[in-house]
Queue: 2 jobs
Job 1
Amino acid sequence: MRVEVISPHGFCAGVESAVKKALALGSGAFCLHEPVHNDMVTAALRRRGAGIADDPGEVPPGATMILPAHGVAPRVRREAEARGVKIVDATCPFVERVHRAARAFAEKGLPVVVIGDAGHDEVAGIVGEVEDCGGRAFVYPDLPPSGGIGVVCQTTADVDCVARTVSELRGRYAVEVMAEVCGVTRERQRAVKEFKGDALLVLGSARSANSRRLCEIAPCRAFMASDMAEVRRLDLSGVETLGVTSGASTPEDFFNEAVEFLKEGCKEER
Ligand code: SF4
């Protein structure tokens, strides 16, 4: 079996910055949700003494709460600040851009359609932004009956799927669009779609939307592994060329260890 590293891989700039902010605060600080969807990162934060709060109400007054890279609804920040919680904002600038666009559409009176995973924290944050200024948000395929709409998307959605959905919506509504998948995600998806081997391994957590997406769009059979135990258990029999990549929240140490392990396995085959 040949192992082919597919680049880019490892942390994106948004994740890198969120993790640095969270690690720097360390003991006594709380991350609202996981700052990024990765168990290794969460474990490293816990070792530094940081807490993970599922709900902002769990953070005591006077403590510091870090907002996650995928953002939150404005109400979450306001309510925490009103209780005396200090906020460190680790929202990725690309997510902030989507929030601004969604808000601008809502302030013009347009219902806002969000293309993304209903129930994902990033989508909940975008919907919260729209509702904060009295607008109406719909998570596709939920749609308003007719008229004009503003369309935004989750930053880690499938680029091709977003383009198809926007085109479909243009046939039914007067559409204003700011639906851009972030550059990092676009680049990873392009590299995966161009991969010519017969199997793809995506290193990352099943809770990471951008990692899952890489598996979904793979042009060949695809596996996911979130730690070395899962990598060791993979059944790669019959694979001739294995592509290896990772989601934007996967630590590079794990990526390198997994690739080294897989390449060692190849040497033993010879
Ligand atoms: S995947 Fe894109 S939007 Fe998400 S944190 Fe990274 S750069 Fe930001």
Note: The chain is about 40% helix and 20% strand.
Job 2
Amino acid sequence: MIFFYSFLIFLFGASLGSFANVCIYRLPRDKQIISGRSFCPGCKKKINWYDNLPLISYILLNAKCRNCDRYISARYLIVELITAISFLFIFLCFKNLYTIIFLSILILILIMIFFIDLENFIIPDSLNFSIMGLALVKNFLPSFNTSLVHDINQSLIGGIIGYFSIWLIIFLYKTLKKIDGMGLGDAKLMAGIGLLFGWQSIPLVLFLSSILGLFFVAPSLLKKQKTMKSEIPFGPFIIIAMLIYFVFGDFFYGLILV
Ligand SMILES: [Zn+2]
């Protein structure tokens, strides 16, 4: 029976991944999310339902629009797969229904932010505010038994420290080097993380995301494809660092405290 449920959850995750793809395309362009059928960005033709099935259609169409042969970005398949796998993983790892629903909504929003920032170098306020809202609601739910905090004071202090940690970096960069390194979108995302995990998470998430950022940017810096002034989307690194903290946070702090 668990296999049957797992299969259903996987399909459900893939469908929501499909919805996430629509948001990833439309949110940065300020288009209506719900209304309006999906269309091909190449020929503007409406996509038939049988060409719009999560995971399957991409493979059956061989990654091309049926009408104009324009290539469909691999991102569509990747987002559907990641969402399906994340939903399945959360379903199998947690027993409590609140925890499963909460974490599933959270991961869906994080996946949208990850890919929107990667493609457009912005994080829509609507998504950042959704995370903050979720993080506040969580304080009034029964404890999830995870690295999330459930104390409203700790949560609020975390939010403020998260926001100002990035704000300070932006301010210093502006005054010392006269460049915009990061945006306030990153600061709002970090505020959300502080609200979720408390202030204790901020130093580690900042540290890990900087290391990850350096690791990925260093090769193109060396090849001179990018300069220190080039824009890099920092949101995806913050999100990966946050997920590492979610899974291994207690372990890291154990190491420091020993
Ligand atoms: Zn087309």
Note: Residues 96-258 form one domain.
